[in-house]
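4.2 Preliminary Data

To establish feasibility before requesting continued support, the project team ran the inverse folding procedure on a target of 377 residues. The structure was first converted into the token representation described in Section 3, and no sequence information of any kind was made available to the design step. The complete token record follows.
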């Protein structure tokens, strides 16, 4: 009886301990279903366009290659539904080429490259540059590819004092993938204030000059003339002629005196403000290349041989026709990438896919400062 009582007390104590024992903290000793893996890096793909507004004007008299370009983003950029460049992020660049307007050519043309992206929290991305603390570099790319560019075609006369005004909108194209620190980007996004786009004050010093009406002529009346008197005739006696007493002649009077007024001055307007527009003179390009082994381009097979490529404009995207002996064999999309120097020779570049097939990745052409890149997804 005593033994059964002791067993009963022991069982009650064990049950009580089991009920009051604390559960292990979540994530300890067992896997969590759906646990997210936090990525430390974000990559903005090549070909991404970023809308910018200039925060400093580019003036007609002083603008030259090498001058700085300062702008801010006016529309956010997202990658995989995650914001990576918020509105109001600063961008710094430099003018590479400038064609000025003339009397017979009322337009200007710019080519620029960009070197820095500066977030609201101070996080800075170099495009590219020497590795420094708190600064990220893009992943390795061909060293002749300009990381970020903008080409602007502006309708503007030679009498404008501003070529690109404050607030002028241009598009920056990322020509290489840009790698970002995810934590710093997230902090910058939290600090960003998506306020309405600021009203940029024009930097033009030109002010319209109103016209003046002038003054009318002043007319001073002259004096009227006098009619004079007719002659007086006294009849003579019989056999005597009449006696004529001459009258007095009239006076001509004086003409009015006219004092001329002052002429008015015409209204002098300012030239129309510069407007960024597309270049209506799009140039056509045709180049040749040779491949020594079969490749694919956008999924289309190309046997070894000599080919030609034809397209229009310098992109950033272009529809490229691939021809052989003048006959079309494929039509594919390609990115037109600007280079910082001329290619020394024709140079096709290929990529080996996971299945062992070879894809055409890019084409460079001897003596040209552009290349075609065929994205493989």
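Position-by-position output of the design step:
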């Amino acid at each position: 009886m005593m033994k059964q009582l002791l067993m009963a007390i022991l069982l009650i104590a064990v049950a009580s301990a089991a009920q009051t024992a604390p559960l292990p903290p979540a994530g300890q000793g067992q896997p969590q279903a759906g646990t997210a893996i936090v990525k430390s890096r974000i990559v903005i793909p090549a070909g991404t366009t970023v809308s910018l507004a200039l925060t400093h004007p580019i003036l007609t008299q002083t603008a030259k290659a090498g001058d700085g370009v300062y702008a801010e983003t006016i529309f956010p950029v997202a990658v995989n539904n995650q914001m990576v460049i918020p509105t109001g992020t600063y961008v710094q660049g430099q003018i590479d080429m400038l064609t000025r307007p003339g009397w017979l050519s009322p337009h200007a043309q710019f080519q620029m490259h960009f070197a820095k992206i500066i977030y609201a929290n101070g996080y800075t991305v170099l495009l590219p540059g020497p590795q420094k603390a708190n600064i990220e570099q893009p992943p390795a790319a061909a060293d002749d590819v300009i990381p970020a560019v903008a080409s602007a075609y502006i309708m503007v006369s030679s009498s404008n004092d501003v070529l690109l005004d404050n607030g002028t909108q241009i598009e920056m194209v990322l020509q290489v993938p840009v790698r970002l620190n995810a934590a710093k980007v997230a902090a910058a996004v939290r600090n960003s204030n998506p306020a309405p786009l600021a009203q940029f004050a024009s930097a033009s010093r030109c002010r319209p000059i109103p016209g003046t009406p002038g003054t009318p002529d002043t007319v001073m009346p002259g004096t009227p003339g006098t009619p004079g008197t007719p002659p007086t005739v006294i009849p003579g006696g019989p056999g005597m002629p009449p006696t004529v007493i001459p009258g007095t002649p009239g006076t001509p009077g004086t003409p009015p005196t006219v004092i001329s007024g002052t002429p008015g001055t015409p209204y002098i307007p300012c030239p129309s403000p510069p407007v960024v527009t597309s270049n209506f003179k799009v140039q056509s390009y045709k180049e040749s290349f040779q491949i020594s082994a079969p490749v694919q381009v956008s999924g289309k097979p190309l046997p070894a041989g000599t080919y030609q490529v034809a397209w229009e404009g310098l992109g950033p995207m272009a529809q490229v026709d691939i021809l052989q002996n003048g006959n079309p064999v494929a039509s594919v999309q390609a990115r037109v990438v600007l280079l910082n120097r001329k290619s020394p020779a024709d140079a096709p570049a290929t990529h080996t896919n996971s299945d062992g097939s070879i894809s055409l990745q890019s084409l460079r052409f001897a003596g040209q400062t552009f290349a075609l890149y065929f994205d493989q997804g």
